[in-house]
Batch of 2 targets.
Target 1
Amino acid sequence: MTTAYESVLDADAISRAIRRIALEIVEQTGGAELALVGIRRGGVPLAKRIAEVIREVEKKDVPVGTVDIALYRDDAATALPDPKIGPSDVRFPVGGRNVVLVDDVMQTGRTIRAAIDCLLDYGRPRRVWLAVLCDRGGRELPIAPDFIGRIVEVPAGKKLAVELEGGEDRVVLIGKGAAT
Amino acid sequence: MSAHPFKHRHLLAIEGLDTVDVLQVLDTAEAFFEVSRRPVRKVPTLRGKTIINLFFEASTRTRTSFELAGKRLSADVVNISASSSSVSKGETLLDTCRTLEAMRPDVVVIRHDASGAAEYVSKRVQCSIVNAGDGQHEHPTQALLDAFTMRRAKGKLEKLVVTICGDVMHSRVARSNAALLRLFGADVRMVGPRTLLPVELDKLGVRVYDRLEPALDGADVVMVLRIQRERLQGAMLPTLREYSRTFGIGTKQLAYAKPDALVMHPGPMNRGVEISNDVADGSQSAVLDQVEAGVAVRMAVLYLLTGESGPVEASS
């Protein structure tokens, strides 16, 4: 038995998806009073990438922040809390802005719920949008993304991994199986 | 979800913690530090948890700091001070704690004038106990917030030269700080009148001085302790004025330390006695940074102790 990797998105596909998401964000939000907030940790590099594309295409800087949801988890009192809490870092006024929350993978929606709660502690945005690179379904809360890179089916027993830092960008399904 | 949960159910003393424990508190506090600077200074993490602050000694800053720490984590916080409680009617410490425990708190923060009070209680109740100062023994959260402040200012704890000045004998702050700094290999020095230096100081692994100049030479941190007038009995000090002349930290004395030395004081300060106005309000003073750090560090302690990440209890 070895670990098998099945490619979902390669570096080029990821790059195109990020580009498309960035353009859709500008189109739909109008690009005014825009800010991106990455959800730690997977959403942070993605938010930076989207901001880079917007800077390149629209010639304007979009502020990028990060939120850490550890303190906002709905299972904080019952599950093992993460003793390693990362910092949330939102240095621009959130009030009145179009804020796009960014995450790499969306499943139940609970992380997004926590991230929205965290974001609202910084102010009252005009509107909160949601961009995800992979939507794997399995919602447990009525939350839907506005911008999606790819809808991914994840078979039972497999894990979805998004790698955007260090080495080649890739999205893969990881599962135990014979080497291919 | 971490493989490394906090190992302790209580925080009673720095003695008994290792560097991993201390760094876990300090790193967690970094995340909480930011919470207190947000527009909404509250996170929902400890919703539904109950914290009781049980203070048998007068305290403003420590009690307020613990209270805000609990409230900013959304815990329910109850303050009890001895003067207004049934302690004044003759109830024993243990009965008081058992009574409170029956109301199912998650944490009891206790300050008491008897050394060892927090540990005594911790062995007889189920909830987590945090020592907020017990007699002349320890004040662990003060040492943690001091370490947090030093680390922020100096970037490290290792190899720092820290001079603790004044009434070391009565100071649980000095004892906890020495224990913590020694873990990181800091050079800890203590200076004060011989009558206020306990005899067994060598056991703490600190160097003892009876003159300020050599003690402060090359210091990265100058920690000034309060002359605890309420604890001074008999002739430990001739007069406060003489103390101030010999051991008070003013601009001239501070110049013996490194030019960028950090000045710390656990408060409340006796201005003009152990510290001059110039130094207390000077650019090197970290006194208010210590207070700000206090809330973050206590949030971290409450968070780490109340999570199910603590060792699982066998009982109930």
Target 2
Amino acid sequence: MSFLEQIEPLKQAALVELQAAGDLTALEQARVTYLGTNGKFTGLMRQLASLPKDEKPAAGKAINLAKTELENALSGRRSELELRASVPTEPTDFTLPGRRRVLGKLHPLTQVTDDIVRSFRKIGFVVANGPEVEDDYHCFDALNTPADHPARDTQDTFYLAGCGEGKAPLLLRTHTSSVQIRVMQQQPPPVRIIVPGRVYRRDNADATHNPTFHQVEGLYVDRKVTVGDLKGTVEFVFKELMGPETRIRFRPHYFSYTEPSFEIDFSSALTRRMGKEWLEIAGCGMVHPQVFENVGYDPELWTGWAFGFGIERIAMIRYGINDIRLFYQNDLRFLKQF
Amino acid sequence: MKITLNWLKQYVDFGWTPDELSERLTMLGIEVEGVQKIGGEFDGIVVAQVITRHRHPNADKLSLCRVNDGRGERQIVCGADNFKDGDKVPLILPGSMLPARPGQPSFPIKVGKIRGVESHGMMCSPQELGLPDQVDGLLILSEDARVGQPFAEYLGRAGSDVVYDLEITPNRPDLNSVIGIAREIAAITGNPLKLPQVEIAEGNNPADRLVAVRIEDVELCPRYTARVITGVKVAPSPDWLRTTLEKVGIRSINNVVDVTNYVMLEVGQPLHAFDYRLLTGGATGVAAIVVRRALENEVFVTLDGQERKLSGEILLIADESKPVALAGVMGGQNTEIQPDTTNVLIESAYFKPQNIRATSKRLDLRTESSYRFERGGDPSICEWASRRAAQLILQTAGGELAVGVVDAYPTSVQPKQITVRPQKVNELLGLELSGAEIENYLSQLELFPGIRKPCPVGVERSALEPLTIRVPTYRVDLKREVDLIEEVARLYGVDKIPATPPRGAIGSNEYDAVYDELAAARTILSGLGLCEAQGQTLISDSVAKLAGPDGLVPLANPLSSDMNVLRPSLLPGLLDALRHNLSYKTVDVALFEIGSVFSQTEKGNTEHRRLAIAMTGLRQAAHWAGDSRDAKVDIFDLKGLIEEFFDQYGVRGISFSRRSEMTTLFVESASIHLGKLRIGEIGQLLPTLARQYDLRDAVYLAELDLDTVLLRRNPGKSFKVLPSFPAIRRDVAMTVPEAATHESVMQVVRQAKPANLEAAHLFDIFRGKHVAGGQKSMAYAFTYRHGERSLTDAEVNAAHDKLVEAFRQKLQAVIRES
């Protein structure tokens, strides 16, 4: 058989064998058989050198074409077999649980505080803070609650030990209102701040009390600030916090550092779920002129309002939490719910 | 304070239902803490008489009756059979309720058709009314029962009433009385306040022949009045007096004492009745009342039988030989009203509120009387209240009233005058009221203008002219203009003040940015898989000492030894949280807290923000497959978390240095440094402590001084051009003595400064097979790269060989050929 005549049968045989290879091992064997160093096709190519000179170009072209075809067939078959090999033997059960990358959670009090801060910031308030260990002056006296005032009962206040004799007594602030005084002492009006923070009352822990809890205080001092402004702002903030259908009601009340003073009730689907039309939520009022005088603001020029509420209370109402102690137990089953 | 609806109605008319009253009081600023309906289960049930009884046209077993209810006739269908014409029976009128039986709601009676015939009410059996009589059919009442009489009255039971428990704010002592509340209602309804008439017949003896009053400390007792009644008969109180007191929670004692309590509740003035005979001089001549301070360590037995040791700040009522009452707080046993008391001295006085408050606190003795005096009473009412009490004592216990009153009142209080500017009212409330409207609102509260400057003829009085208001002495809360503005707001109706949208200045405060920085820290930490905790600020000194024995801040008045110091560290709180979680079988816990810690230094108390982290249990959420699914967290999980936190938070230059000694908290730990500053610690909890907290797996803790971190934070970011030339990597595996640390390796790298070194990365540490004892194998990958061209192997080799040589020299490293 001439050289050229040998090419086609050998190629066909190789193609059949490559195609017949059932897996990558068989395919590799077929490759070695034909295209390996000692393979049949490689052997044929070696004969090319011994051909007469005039036959070489045609023979070379033909055998190279055949080799390309074989190599294409080989890589085609290899891709097919590789793909087949990559399919899992058993189908994946996509209902099995995934391997989670778990995010931590912010404490519900942090989340509620952030929401409160966000609503106030929309209307020009900034966040301020002050120390939790306070003195009588900032916590009581400057807020128009002198030592013999009935509203100032030591029963409710934690005092630090060893600060009595000679030194000014130190206490754990009973409200964030002490920060009003610190801020006003430090900056001239106008003032527009909110103060979230920890406060302390000497109550035994039960479902509605914890010696430590959180309040947020709002203070706005400007020229010609009115009760109407107070109502408008309170309505805005509580609608932001509790939903647009929230209604707000003001009732006269008494706080020594505001005059007039009010308590704020709100009403929404949340209160109705608790079986109540109105639920007390905050205290507020127009800053008492005496407080302004205490910090050196002229009450004839400046008016303002302040209001405060408990952050736990907001969170409890919003999420339906029934025991304030849950906030301080840090039970992951609790924390992960928010 | 408790009042009842019926009592209140004696002083002012109003047409509100009990619930409406509750709502009105609330909106006036008098919070209603509780409403309790008492009696009244037979409301709407009257005595009725059957006029005729016929058979129901459509039913054999029913009767059709005509019944007189006292006001007229009505038709009733009835199923009972035990009655006849002329019988008197209980009848429930339509609109009223059939009394509830235990566990069942009460049932409303309506006009309705029974078998086609209308029935206007229901005649009742005793069973239906919950009465004990067993009758088959209607309850037949006695013949002398009055037709139309309320059935409750027929039974001799009290009518219905409603008890309100009111929260009176401390600024309004005038509201601690039924008349005080009535006055508020009169103000908003416009109906007159009906005060009792206290004109009373006096006997023959002048009071000042029977008693003399001497006030030694006028500052503490500005007014003291005494009246004497002789020949009283002490006995149980009449029903009206006893039930009125009992409804509001006051125990009835006898007619004389009950009257003093009644008048106190009625008008707010605490009174005291002494047995006149037991006062020195009382038996023979003129009894003397001396108002004086107690002697130091003077001993006195109060009405409750307690012996009390007094001090010089305490004000006493005494006679010439002994104390007889703690002024304004409680009377003495030695002069209390006895069953055989015949002559009574009635005290009605005014004491300085601060002093009563101090006494009450010092002796830990709080009474209805001290409660009222310490909030501030009305000196002007003393005489009236005394007269009112005398009137009621004469009425309930008989006797003869001495002529006049002994009234020691050296300086009588004058009503204050306060000027209120209509413009200021409007500015503060956001309203547009005229002066006349404001005057009108105030006058509803008996706040009338004082003397007014005459207005020139032909000049109209300005609507905004200031008003000078005369303030009654009982309104101790009204001190300045803004207090009157509040009264205007209350009477106008706080709810009616229009809300105006937020407006005005933008606030500024330096803390505002800090708030965001703390929020950013929380966001990163929760993103790293930690849940945020909030611990108690107050913890016990014994656990606080775990964080270090010095500088604890103890409370002067702790609630318990579990909460007696301010936390010096957040870690004890996190340990509590771990214990809590483990006790509820949550064993994989990773928490952080950001909060304040407190300490005492020579300079005073300090308050710092800290960040603390606690981890225990599995490294990853439990899963059903994977090589490391059972891996527990170790110290490098916590360290890596902190490193990542600092990186993300924009803090560079953190280092860790091992502490050689154990601490009260850690079996092994390291200090965390930021530059040269020590900013915290990280470590593994002592296993002995872990056991105390019932923690099973190893616990890793870290705490950082967040205030310092905030100061050093630089969250600014800037872009670096991406490398465009290839890197060349060279690995080194070497055995080094155990004492060589990663940091010491890196130090050699930093000193050797190999040219073009981009990064050094530790990828293996190995001990054991082929590594001698006391040695370890460390494997590093070094990446070399040039920013502007490709490096050649030769130049990388030159730099790298120098580095390897430095390892040999400085670390006694033996390079392992791979």
